[in-house]
Design a protein that fits this description.
The chain is of the alpha/beta class. Helices cover 35% and strands 16% of the residues. It catalyses: L-histidinol phosphate + 2-oxoglutarate = 3-(imidazol-4-yl)-2-oxopropyl phosphate + L-glutamate.
């Protein structure tokens, strides 16, 4: 097998994206120190949001680079990881021709972004244990497959995919392999960010929406080779991450210990919740989880869901998802919230 260093990323990029000239903003053209800024038609009075944000979020990226052990040039920041998912598909998949390959079940946004961009979707069913079924891959993908999305830990199943199988996909596939690690902080697995040097076709997604507690800010992280990142930067909206989000995420990164405390507490609560759920009559199976939610198979998911909503408790009904018959997805909450849930389920 050829080494991965032979992959020329440019051969994977859509031709129009490769040759286009990107928008050049005022803040792109002048980056130095100055006192008088009359270049961007801004209101001069401090609101204090009268100025445009840094288009490339240099400060946030430098903090993040140090934390993750990568170079700032290997980071793209977007309006949620959803922006990175959309841009990857738009940069690499030719509409009405190319395909992405996803597992079934998995996070819904890969298919939505593919559909919006008229990109074909190829699916491989996970095993009954929700792991990758590598034997099914050869039948699922073909010459039009440009990106494989692997979500690990996976949503809505909650488990990590086998690391060995992911590595086999990385070794054998010559398009992009995107590993969505939105829930990696809740698992005991190493991130694939550390493998970027080995695999030029690897892209890793993480987010401030889950462990970091900042879903409302909308900030997603994408780690890849400098070459891939520069393509995403070329096609993104010029000011895709606003000033407030940059300020508050920087503050969060400077206080990363807070995230670690939340994760510890959530993992404690997760163990308690798993024990309590296993003791309930209506619960048939509690699936193993490496994330901040638990997939639970109950006797009648629709009835349980309705009963809980009547009691003002909202969980996610995943019973119509492949391999998730009669399954509910339950996010780990505060101790009080989890107790309220268990109390209600005991009375069912
Ligand atoms: C929640 C989640 C995300 C986060 O998306 P954002 O746009 O960053 O909020 C990404 N991937 C998966 C699998 C998720 O479950």
């Amino acid at each position: 097998m050829k080494g991965k260093s032979f992959i020329d990323i440019r051969t994977l990029v859509r031709k129009n994206i490769l040759t286009m000239k990107p928008y050049s903003s005022a803040r792109d053209e002048f980056k130095g120190e100055a006192e008088v800024f009359l270049d961007a038609n801004e209101n001069p009075y401090p609101t204090p949001y009268n100025r445009y944000p840094d288009p490339l979020q240099k400060e946030v990226k430098e903090k993040l680079a140090a934390l993750k052990g990568v170079d700032a040039s290997q980071i793209f920041l977007g309006n949620g990881s959803d922006e990175a998912i959309d841009l990857l598909i738009r940069a690499f998949c030719e509409p009405n021709h190319d395909s992405i390959l996803i597992t079934e079940p998995t996070y819904g946004m890969y298919a939505v972004c593919a559909d919006v961009n008229a990109v074909n979707i190829q699916q491989v069913l996970l095993t009954p244990e929700f792991d990758l079924d590598l034997d099914a891959f050869p039948n699922a993908f073909d010459a039009t497959t440009k990106i494989i999305f692997l979500c690990s830990p996976n949503n809505p199943t909650g488990n990590l995919l086998s690391r060995d199988k992911i590595i086999e996909v990385l070794n054998r596939f010559y398009g992009l392999v995107v590993i969505d690690e939105a829930y990696i902080d809740f698992s005991n697995s190493r991130s694939f960010v550390q493998e970027l040097k080995k695999y030029p076709n690897l892209v890793v997604l993480q987010t401030f929406s889950k462990a970091w507690g900042l879903a409302g800010l909308r900030l997603g992280m994408c780690f890849a080779s400098e070459e891939i990142i520069s393509i995403l930067n070329k096609i993104k909206y010029p000011y895709n991450v606003n000033i407030r989000t940059q300020e508050l995420s920087l503050e969060a990164l400077e206080n990363a210990y807070k995230k670690d405390i939340w994760v510890d507490e959530i993992l404690n609560q997760r163990d308690k919740l798993i024990k309590a759920l296993k003791g309930l009559k209506i619960v048939d199976k509690v699936y193993p989880t490496d994330s901040n939610f638990i997939l639970v198979r109950v006797q009648d998911a629709n009835a349980t869901y309705r009963y809980l909503t009547d009691n003002k408790i909202i969980v996610r009904d995943r019973s119509r998802v492949s391999l998730c018959y009669n399954c509910l997805r339950i996010t780990v909450g505060t101790p009080e919230e989890n107790e309220t849930l268990i109390k209600a389920l005991k009375q069912l």
